[in-house]
Amino acid sequence: MAKLSRRQLITYAVVSQELNNSDDFLLGLMPFFDPIINEMDGQIFDAYTFSEKIVEQLDWPVNPDVVTELLPRLEGAGRVERIADDDGDAVFICRSVKTFDGEEKELLAVKQLREIAVLFKKSCDDISPVTTNHLSYEDLEEMLLNWMVAVEGFDRKAESPLDF
After folding, report:
1. Which of 81, 85, 97 is nearest to 44 (CA)?
2. In the structure, what pLDDT confidence band is assigned to residue 115 with cuts at 50, 70 and 90?
3. Looking at the predicted structure, is the pLDDT value of residue 80 above 70?
4. CATH code for position 34
5. H helices of 19-63, where?
6. Does residue 137 lie in a domain region?
7. Alpha-carbon gap, residue 16 to 33, rounded angstroms
8. Residue 64's pLDDT is what?
């Protein structure tokens, strides 16, 4: 498996939790877009601008074509509102949403992940004080996140050890 960054793995964990309500993984990303939508509240939705803001704020390589694919989901979730149709091209306006902050949820995931790593390391030390675990908390967290991705990849019904 390719080595993924901590942010990618935590984002995966958050999106995976959101997928409990839907099989559409793009809907799982909606909370991460809320700060951008709220910033653009009342403005005409522009795929190029939205794409640039995603790259700037989330560091995700999203182009305007992908944003266009997101548009029906953004509309269905009440994050944009269709205000006009111009020769088959719809015009949307951004509408502020009051939902959880994706960054806040990510911070909670990081905190819970550290708590698990501390408990695991303590448990290993308690079981066998002769063999000392030389892995850092970050290494243990990375191992857990990679395991979670592997388990989720094989079983969508698998219980996630991180409960958000």
Report:
1. 81
2. confident
3. yes
4. 1.10.10
5. 25-28, 30-39, 47-58
6. no
7. 16
8. 93
C-alpha 139: how far from its chain's center? 21
The torsion angle over the Cα atoms of residues 137, 17, 19 and 90, rounded to 10 degrees, is -90
Coil, strand, or helix at residue 46?
A: coil
- Are 83 and 93 contacting, i.e. CB atoms less than 8 angstroms apart? yes
Instruction: Give 47's pLDDT tier (boundaries 50, 70, 90).
Output: very high
For the chain, give the number of residues: 164
Rounded to 10 degrees, the C-alpha dihedral 97/73/33/144 comes to: 120
134 in any annotated domain? no
The 3-class SS string of the chain reads CCCCCHHHHHHHHHHHHHHHHCCCHHHHCHHHHHHHHHHCCCCECCHHHHHHHHHHHHCCCCCHHHHHHHHHHHHHCCCEEEEEEECCEEEEEECCCCCCCHHHHHHHHHHHHHHHHHHHHHHHHHHCCCCCCCCCHHHHHHHHHHHHHHHHHHCCCCCCCCCC
Range of the domain at 65: 24-94
Please count the structural domains in the chain.
Answer: 1
Domain membership flag for residue 16: no
Residue 37 domain-assigned? yes
